[in-house]
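Note to self: keep these together.
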Amino acid sequence: QLQLVESGGGLVQSGGSLRLSCAASRFTFDYYAIGWFRQAPGKEREGVSCFSNRGGNTIYADSVKGRFTVSRDSAKNLLVLQMNNLKPEDTGHYYCAARGSSYCSAALAAREYHNWGQGTQVTVSS
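Structure:
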């Protein structure tokens, strides 16, 4: 059914880059808005971005604008989150999830998403 698998996390120094991937079917990316979220210990899940193919919009949290870019790799059925100029505040467990809608919402509210994967850990050292 609808399953998402995250990969690409790791340990990097402040200012470095990582590329995260969210794998799913072509159908999933054609019909559902897909969000990226992150969660640090003791904190609520925080919205990072949302990509919608059918809705035709892409959303970024203010905290990552200008540093993170989300794109679709249609050939490999991946949604890619390119993270540049990473900061220690970006540390967390990163997840992708489907909104159950063809449209992104600027609110990036985790409660509106489902089909969470296991996530991938991103650690940014000072």
